[in-house]
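Field log, afternoon session.

UNIT: design team B
ACTIVITY: writing a sequence onto a fixed backbone
BACKBONE:
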């Protein structure tokens, strides 16, 4: 089993690789549960983090260089945070491995966290207030690490083929694959054929 590489890019996840793969892990109705601001719906969207807790569904995504947060409340049926700007705090060290997203404004702070092993949690507390009990997450999709960096392109494509990804286009130094609403771009060094870049794009 390959170990994750901690870099803040894209994460592709599969149970067979010890990680969580996006399309398989998410509920089918997730896109309808998290309504999108019509203005933000234009252009490509890169999902950085998705997970569920007992009471919430969380989605963090990037568009046009900005990071946004959605938090859907399962009990009320309303989206408490809908396309709000979020601050990002990368993990600081191995002792503090959490990558954190939090809404920029509001009386309540919605703090979504993920670490390189795929553990997630959502903490909701008063802005500037003391820490509150966090809810653990499951059904996780997250935007780091990139497990294909440094791997041979042929091996990476073989793994992706087993997970039902379909090659959409190829070039001298890159491959694009599609599955459901996702596009996966892989670039590789033409000489060594090692993957140097991976990006997962959510088209919904």
């Amino acid at each position: 089993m390959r170990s994750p590489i901690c870099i803040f890019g894209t994460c592709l996840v599969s149970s067979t690789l010890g990680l969580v793969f996006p399309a398989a892990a998410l509920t089918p109705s997730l896109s309808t549960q998290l309504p999108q601001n019509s203005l933000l719906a234009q252009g490509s969207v890169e999902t950085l983090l998705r997970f569920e807790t007992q009471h919430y569904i969380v989605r963090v995504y990037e568009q046009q260089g900005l990071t946004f947060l959605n938090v859907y409340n399962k009990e009320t049926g309303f989206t408490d945070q809908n396309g709000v700007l979020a601050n990002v705090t990368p993990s600081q060290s191995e002792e503090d491995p959490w990558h954190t997203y939090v809404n920029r404004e509001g009386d309540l702070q919605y703090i979504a966290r993920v670490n390189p092993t795929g553990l997630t949690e959502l903490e909701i507390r008063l802005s500037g207030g003391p820490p509150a009990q966090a809810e653990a997450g499951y059904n996780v999709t997250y935007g780091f690490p990139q497990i294909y960096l440094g791997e041979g392109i042929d091996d990476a494509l073989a793994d992706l083929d087993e997970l039902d990804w379909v090659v959409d286009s190829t070039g001298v130094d890159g491959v694009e694959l599609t599955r459901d609403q996702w596009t996966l771009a892989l670039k590789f060094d033409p000489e060594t054929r090692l993957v140097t870049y991976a990006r997962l794009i959510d088209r919904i």
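LOG NOTE: Residues 166 and 178 are 5 Å apart (CA to CA).
NEXT ACTIVITY: expression trials, pending approval
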